[in-house]
Every structure is written in structure tokens, then in C-alpha cells.
Amino acid sequence: MEVWIIGVLLMGYAIGCLHGSVIAQKISGVDLKVTGVKNAGASNATIVLGKKMGALVAAIDIGKGAVAILLVRYFAHQAGWPEDTVTLLLFIVGAAVVIGHNFPFHMHFNGGKGTATIIGVLLTLDWRLGLAGFLLFVIVALTTDFLVVGVLMLYITLIAKALWTEGYWPLIIAALLFGMAIWKHLENFSRMKAGTEKRISAIFKKNAKKD
After folding, report:
1. In the list 44, 86, 157, 162, which could disulfide-bond 174, CB 3.0-4.6 Å?
2. Residue 38: what are its φ and ψ, rounded to 5°?
3. Is residue 209 predicted with pLDDT exceeding 60?
4. Exposed, middle or buried: residue 2 (CB in 10 Å: 0-12, 13-18, 19+)?
5. Mean pLDDT over residues 12-25, rounded?
6. Into how many domains does the chain fold?
7. Confidence label for 2 from pLDDT (cuts 50, 70 and 90)
């Protein structure tokens, strides 16, 4: 089991390091780490490069979260692991792929914030709960006009999934990811307090003119 856990962690991290922002940089020539809010994620790609490029980055980052879950689910079932063990491995690889996105070695361990990737993880862990979490994310983000508030709903959804799962490790993993998400978004909360955080409505107005 230990070998499986190590393998799943390494695979998940490696997949997480495959960044949509790198593709966006190759296409546009713009380094998202030094422009906009200086974040290698879909939201900054949307702010700096427009909705189309933001959608491309989001699709890649959502996709890698989904691929990581699908691969581990397939190989774990092929190996004949019991369902509770498979679920634990899925939570582990889900955490690893988000960590890989947030702390990729090729970006000096300073990547994105994991929002698109956790969406892919959630949708593939349980598509019904994942869809509910995504809708909650959209509704809360649009209602508050701040993306970061909606992001927290995704991690709360993951915690809800963990609460319905046997064993305590999935809950610990989900809680740690929630804590990491808050830590990664501290600058957003600081900007909200200062009144300088970009609102969703302002971003779309800006990009409507750009596109």
C-alpha cells in the first residue's frame, strides 16, 4: 500500500505541474507570472489575455484534475483494491494534482491557486456532487462579485464529500486542501479589504471590449 501511495503522490504531482498557463504563454508570448495579478491560473489569463485564452487555460487545468482521478481509479480497480482504499487513493491523487498546480518545480514552486484543477477533481470524484459544487461556486461568485468567495465553496464541497466517505483520512486531506486554498488566497482577501480586488463584473466588461 505504501508503494501505491508514493506512486499516486508522484503521479498526481507530475500531472499537476502541467500548466495551462505555460501553453497560454507559448501562444501569446505573455508570462502570466509577471503580469496582471501575477498568477499562473485561468482567472489571471482571463484578466490579461481575454476570455478565450482564459477558457483554454481553465480547460487544461480542469482536464488534468480529471485525468489524475480517472487514471488512479482505473489502475486501483484493476489491482483489486477495496472501494474504501480506492476512495482514499483518489483523495490522495486529487490533493497531489492540486499541489502540483500550486507548487510546480519548473516555476520555482510558485504556480497557480488550484481553482480549475479542484473543479476537475470534484467532477470526476463524484459528478453529481462536483456539479453541485461548481454551480454553488458560480452562484456565490456572481452574487458576491468576487471569484475568491466562490472558490471556497469548491473546497467546502470536497469536505462534504469526505464526510460521506468511510475513514478519517479523506476528511483530513480535504481540510488541509481547504486550509491551503485560504492561504493561497490571502492576498485576494487583503485586496478585498483594501477595496482593490478585481470584481468579476469589471473583468468581463474589460474583456468584452478586448474581445
Report:
1. 162
2. 60, 50
3. no
4. exposed
5. 93
6. 1
7. confident
